[in-house]
Amino acid sequence: MKNHSLALKLSAGFGFLFLYAPIVALIIYSFNESKLVTVWGGWSLKWYVELFQNEQIMNAAWVSLKIAFISATLASILGTLAGFVLSRMGKFRGKTMMAGWVTAPLVMPEVITGLSLLLLFVAMESMFGWPAGRGTTTIVIAHTTFCLAYVAVVVQSRLSSLDETLEEAAMDLGAKPVSLFFLITLPLISPAILSGWLLSFTLSLDDLVIASFVSGPGNSTLPMVIFSKVRLGVTPEINALATLMILVVSVAVIAAIFIMRRQNRFQNP
Amino acid sequence: MINASTNTTQLTLLQRLQTIRLGRWFVILMPMLWLAAFFFIPFLVVFKISLSEAMIAVPPYSPLLEWDPNNAYATLKVTFGNYLFLFESRFYLDAYLSSLRIAAVSTFFTLIIGFPIAYLIARSGSMARTILLSLVILPFWTSFLLRVYAWMSLLKKNGLVNDTLMSLGLIDQPLQILQTDVAVYIGIVYTYLPFMILPLYTTLEKMDMSLIEAAKDLGAKPWRAFCSVTLPLAKPGIIAGCLLVFIPAVGEFVIPSLLGGSDTLMIGRVLWDEFFLNRDWPLASAVAIIMLIVLVGPIMFMRNGNKEAL
User: Fold this and answer.
1) Is 90 exceeded by the pLDDT of residue A256?
2) Which Pfam families match (chain A) (predicted)?
């Protein structure tokens, strides 16, 4: 029994090492003075300074943040509706089909999603004249579509674990469907919607493939700029950028986990 | 709010039922129409364009319906040439097969590495469980592109992996790992690991540990108990995890293009090159349609299974 759990701990430990070693190495290399990323030249903040002076990266970061904010918000609204419809609206015509449309984008290879949306936009433009050209709008539509699926899944799983008696009680007391949703259901699922929004935001900020298909000239997002730089090899500025992004995300995720843990304790003591 | 409720009390019961039904359909149709327009219809467009010919025009493919102004009728121009081309050329067949192989091998290693982690988390106490789960989820939230990029500097000729192996005396000369299939396996296993661990953890957590105790009391060795009790009980999680890794890995583009060599053939990369370098939109569409047909089985299977596992 003891041996068994030692082997288990060792192999799990190896797994965690595998997960974290690359990230730690990346962070350490970002403080490397030397231009040759893998040769250690002493500690330095030089690449952070160069990063903030790089106008191309800063512009792309701004474009990406705007797109991520709008897409995450749209995806949260539509995704919450989709999750609600699938778990609280009973049976309706087309439900199975809709359930399929909600889960399939989660695993659909990005090249297929990207290509199909681009061809749709091209066809729409020649038929209705909208969207005129490709750029921020088309990227927002594409990101909303695939983020919507994530939000719907998170909301759906929250709704299915939720006790329906509260909603039933409100209905018995005469609440109308709309006020029932806004006064009872929405506050109960708001943590799920928030985590869906955050997930959508990071997914949109990170997407390279779909954005490459549906963006127009002069509308490069941050991942597109990063990809064109690292394709040629390792770049110290990108190490600095990666470190900053990992830092922000880690702080946010750790904070979110502790808030959720406290809330859970509060809800089921 | 008050005005609305006084208004509705004046309506007849039938009218109220109708407004509820209208509202219901409004709520159902909003997400449904969005998904139909931007998820489902695009596949029909891809299929349509896969049946046309590439030409130098804007957009670069031939129209499916050709309108003849003199005779006032339209002719349907459909070609299966793109599909025939895909089946006849060895290159595309090889690309599909090698994508499936790379995805399958990576999925297997993801399972081998992910299972002990999921098992350990499922068996930990409440606080340790929260910390370990956060450690698994954290990389999933950080940029996928940057996590792939992190491996580029580790796997280089003079990177950390080669340096470590050399200083341990395991190898005399640096190995060529970057730009080989091995680097692609490492990249896929690394980036998709959380997708394997989370569904595995969900099923293992629900597992009744007294069943294993019972098997051991009845004289089963740990390995035997694992094979005949734990594995069958964890099956839904194993299937869900494998599909969540396998399906997107087949069409992966970023990992083979950053970590793989020029001879690492993956269909996502072929589609990308066909589209962006050769600008052959109809052929790229045909490649996508065949990929979709290959993946539709696993996707349906996942949809049916995920009620238990996800």
Assistant:
1) no
2) BPD_transp_1 (PF00528)
